[in-house]
Amino acid sequence: MKHRITKLFIFISLTTGLFATEVKQVKTCAKEAKNFKLGEPFDFTVGPHAIYFDKKKPQLFAFFIGASEAKKGNEFSIAAGYRNDDKILLTEPAKINLNFKANQVNPLTGAKIELLSLISIFPVAVKSGENNVIYIHNEGGGLLSTPKLNDANDQTSSKIIQIATVDNNALTGSAIFAAVKNNKNQLFGADGSGIVFVALENKTIIKDKTKVTCKKPNCEKCQAFKKENEQTVLTTNVYNVDPEDKKAKENKAAPFTGSINAIKINNPANIISDVIDMYWDATLARLYIALQVRSNSKSDSGARAIVSCRIVGQVKEKIKTYKLYFDPIVTNLAISGNNQIIGTLQANTDVSILKVRTMHTSTFLSYLIVLDKNNQLYALPLVDKTREKVNLAFDKIHGTLAKFDQDPITYFTNDFFIARAFTNPAMNPNDLLTVNQAAAKIGNGPVPLDKKVNDMFVLDDAVYVTTQEGAYYSQPIFDNLGRISAWTNWQLFATDKKVFAGAFDVITGQFWYLTGENSKKINTLNRTDWQTNDKNEIQKNINALFIENGGIQGLFEFPKNKLMVATGNSQVALINSKNMHNVKIFKDIVLQEIGNIVTAAFVNNLLVVGGTNGLAIKHDNRFKKIGDYKLVKKIYSEDKYLYVLTDKTFDRVELDNQLNIVTLASLENIIFNPQVTFSDFIVSGKFILLGTSIGLFKLDGIQKLTEINIPGSVGPILKIIFNRSNNIGQLYVLSGYIGFYQSKINRLFVDLLNNTIEPINDMFIKNELTSFYDFESFRDIILPVGSTLLNINSKDLDEGLALRSTPFLQTASRALTIDSFKYNLDANKLNQIYGILQNSATGSLILNGDFGLIINQ
User: Fold this and answer.
1) Can you say whether the dihedral through the CA atoms of 270, 275, 281, 287 is positive or negative?
2) Residue 225: which H helix or E strand, with range?
3) pLDDT, tens digit (0-9, with 9 covering 90-100), for 275-287
4) From CA 128, how far away is CA 133, in angstroms rounded?
5) Which of 193, 527, 592, 721 lies at a 20 to 30 A Cα distance from 12?
6) Which candidate, 130, 138, 226, places its Cα nearest to that of 174?
């Protein structure tokens, strides 16, 4: 399908506008009678959507929408929003090239779109009223349509209920899988139900058949004419993919009922809903089908709600064939009881999986991601034999559930790391994760507020869901072998508005989402943006309090208090976290004495702040100094204690009737010398780490320190971030030396029960652990957010304000192979960023610096 790639930009220029020149062409060609913009309601409801984003071409991003109601003359029945453009652009006008016939009525104009997907950046759709036909947007503009798809009984199907698309895969080329109901329109799973396979293939056609050549051998004029009169076009070919049927030549579905071995256990099961989900994983070359099933009433019956589908293509005597094979996602023997997520071994019992995706982690391991009817998402490890010497098309184990506690296999070429994988399948019940195990439970529990999950997507090391209370994400916590051992709690992401579908553009930091009054009136495509003061009144008002006095030097959130605290030179502001409208500013003689205030904490609901010339606690709207501190870098409160870090000391302070200060670490310790400085710390119960200019140390008591090995680190420890889930956690440790203009980030696995810290097996060379990522230059501020690592060099004033996103990270990445992207913060006259925070009350990202605040919302 190479021609589809070479002509991609021709199509883009006619229909979308992804770059500046193409945008101008679109605006010139598109009708001006009607315009829709991001954030403004359509005059029709929308529902189906599809996201275009390719890591290999990250400069392209598009959010496609389909109309969920028929509206006469609506040319925006399929439309899209594009990065760097506020307009919604239609994909095709009312008159088009249809199946290579010019000036035809566009069958999608005014239509209700039932299903929408993409092949590359080409929309693929099923419309209401023609529920057994698929329309494909073709290169150069125009549409292709399939014939009416047949069911597994070789009769015209009554309806396509789900589609999954393949973009130029090595096994299939570009293709479409379609789940079809039988001719009688019975519930999916009844006799005749099946999965159809549509391939998009090249075909040579003669433009003008009335003209002939002279037929003389080696006639140059005839050969030139023949070349001009031939055209290679894209056509649809619907194959007979039933492995048992050798007669039907084309257009026949592979049978898919509750009686197939991939679903039933011992006795035929029943598929109990037309609501299914399908997802093609290009890495594993497997189609995953999620179902709602019910086991047979016989006592030894069971059922599986996930099916793994592989496709086998062959060419015999110049005739190409494709056949679909449905494999059990796990063997019958591994299913026991009713707590193994995707299956049951109880009679007359329902198992429902509503959505299915896959995750390929930064540690190079593959997982199946599923959503059940109880609003809980789970992750299950998958077998990956990509690097093994097997034919993946014929391997029934590849892509199925793996034994969760096996040691992964690591692959090397010339002692250089290339991959890691689970290769042993789950064979018995002890090999499968259950609903109660931390490694399986994404978000460490159901989606917050028990709101229905409207949509889900996976992007790198994060799973996102959208609900009527906003978007949320959860990240895995990896053990030392790179396996998922737990998940972070659900974190509100980007917006707390009603979100019915969403996508995160990691290149710009923008979150795109569909919203509306309710699920029956979704009519707006919106996105978050970095706000300037003239666009954001809240931001403007807060900035006015600080910007003339050095800006906001510290920004901290305290979810229990529902407050944010902004600090600066001689002043502190309390801000309502949820709406950020209510702001109370404090300035007094004590705060003036402290000077530059850079840190804050609440102890027993009393605000404590610290900075250049000490600590102060707020009593009755007045501040009072604590102790005799200088150069306070960070304070943190846990239980009744306040932990205080300066450049030379690390104290635990108990604020009771009298001040009780215990010095946990100081330069008097034999490990240190007068030139050492302290930089950061974390406290989680009895687990305490201290970052210094000579390394990372674990505190096991007063002045009892043990150095922690940070493989491949460079220079002082600059930042420590700890993501905890119950008794285990993930450490991100940033080290760097501005003199060499270098910095690196390491990941470590913490087991609080066993009091152990181990590096994750990030490696570049065999048997040598190293850092997770080497930055291209110095960085001193980082924040892992979902699918990307936000990073800043606060010391670089020459570059101006530079917040960078570094997505697509994998074990032992380097800046030479992984790009960073500079966010456009839409701001001027900015010099320095002091920090970045994600507001848990709204999901918004907030930057603070000498400019005040910049909010992404």
Assistant:
1) positive
2) helix 220-229
3) 999 999 999 999 9
4) 10
5) 527
6) 138
Contact between 539 and 847 (Cβ < 8 Å): no
HSE-CB of 519 using CA atoms within 13 angstroms? 9
- Exposed/middle/buried for residue 429 (C-beta within 10 Å: 0-12, 13-18, 19+): middle
Query: Which residue in 805, 54, 787 sits closest to 462, CA to CA?
Result: 787
Q: What angle do CA 264, 269, 270 make, to 5 degrees?
A: 140
Which residue from 455, 535, 536, 442 is spatially nearest to 498, judged by alpha carbons? Answer: 455
User: How far, in Å, CA of 11 to CA of 143, rounded?
Assistant: 12
Residue 695 backbone phi and psi in degrees, to 5: 140, -175
Rounded CA-CA distance 811/420 in Å is 10
Q: Cβ of 35: how many Cβ atoms within 10 Å?
A: 13
Q: Measured between alpha carbons, how far is 538 from 421 in angstroms, rounded to an integer?
A: 49
pLDDT band at 1 (very low <50, low <70, confident <90, very high): very low
Rounded distance, CA 357 to CA 368, Å? 6
5 has pLDDT over 60: no
Q: How many CB atoms lie within 10 A of CB 828?
A: 9
Q: Which one, of 779, 857, 767, lies nearest residue 815 by Cα?
A: 779
Task: Residue 51: name the closest of 41, 37, 36, 66 by CA.
Answer: 66
Residue 276 near residue 290, CB atoms below 8 Å:
yes
Q: What angle do CA 198, 199, 204 make, to 5 degrees?
A: 130
- Give the H/E segment covering residue 25: helix 20-29
Residue 160 one-letter amino acid: I
Alpha carbon distance 610, 607 (integer Å): 10
| pTM > 0.70 | yes
* Total residues belonging to the chain: 857
**Average pLDDT score over residue span 652-669:** 87
How far is Cα 626 from Cα 78, in angstroms, rounded to an integer? 63
Phi-psi region of 826 (alpha: psi -120 to 50; beta: other; left: phi over 0): left
Closest CA to 70 of 20, 107, 96, 27: 107
Q: Is the dihedral of CA 847, 848, 851, 853 positive or negative?
A: positive
The whole-number average pLDDT for the span 634-649 is 93
3-state secondary structure of 418: strand
**C-beta of residue 565 within 8 angstroms of C-beta of residue 599:** no
In the numeric block, which tokens belong to residue 128? 């209401």
**How remote is the C-alpha of 451 from its chain's centroid?**
20
Q: Is 249 exposed, middle or buried, given 0-12, 13-18 or 19+ CB atoms closer than 10 A?
A: exposed
- Residue 320 confidence class, pLDDT cut points 50, 70, 90: confident
Q: Taken in order 382, 388, 393, 395, is the CA torsion positive or negative? A: negative
Q: Provide Rg for the chain, Cα atoms.
A: 30
pLDDT of 16? 35
Tokens of 24: 């101008």
Cβ-contact 717, 692 below 8 angstroms: yes
CB 707 within 8 A of CB 671: yes
521: Cβ contacts below 8 Å, ≥ 6 apart: 45
Burial class of 94 by CB neighbour count within 10 A (0 to 12, 13 to 18, 19+)? middle
pLDDT at 787: 87
How far is 46 from 78, CA to CA, in rounded Å?
9
* Token pair 């508005």: residue: 497
DSSP symbol at 12: H
Closest listed residue to residue 292, CA positions, set 377, 349, 336: 349
Residue 437 CB burial class (10 angstroms; 0-12, 13-18, ≥19): middle
Q: In this structure, what token pair is assigned to residue 653? A: 């302070």
* Closest C-alpha to 290, from 171, 162, 460: 162
For CA atoms 371, 372, 374, 377, give the dihedral sign.
Answer: negative
- 269 close to 342: Cβ distance less than 8 angstroms: no
* Vertex 81: Cα angle to 77 and 85 (nearest 5): 140
